[in-house]
Amino acid sequence: MPTYITLWKLTDQGVKNIKNAPQRIEAAIKSAEAAGGKTKGFYVTMGDYDYVTIGEGASDESQMAFLLRTASAGSVRSTTLKAFTQEEFAEIVKKLP
What pTM does this model have? Predict the structure, then answer.
């Protein structure tokens, strides 16, 4: 399954309702699982981003649907990076001329 690293920022609404964040996070993790994905790591961070997740998705399309569904609730905005393992990268490089 493809791997994604997502950087999350709380919106004003998300900050206003921060006491509900643990429940929202758990609901988002369950939503990802329901779409065939898996959360491999979740971190609350200091700095430019409030949360970082590392997860797997069934496909780019299912990951995009998950991200849109999560953002539409209004508490977070995201920046997502598609990640490749060291092994996947080696296979990609082998295809270069």
Answer: 0.91
- Round to the nearest angstrom and report the end-to-end CA distance of the chain: 27
The amino acid occupying position 92 is I
Please write the tens of the pLDDT for every residue from 24-56.
999 999 999 998 999 999 999 999 999 999 999
Q: Residue 83: CB partners within 8 Å, gap ≥ 6? A: 3, 4, 5, 54
Domain holding 15, by residue range, is: 3-94
Residue 46: CATH number of its domain: 3.30.70.920
What total number of domains does the chain contain?
Answer: 1
Question: Are 43 and 52 a contacting pair, CB within 8 Å?
Answer: yes
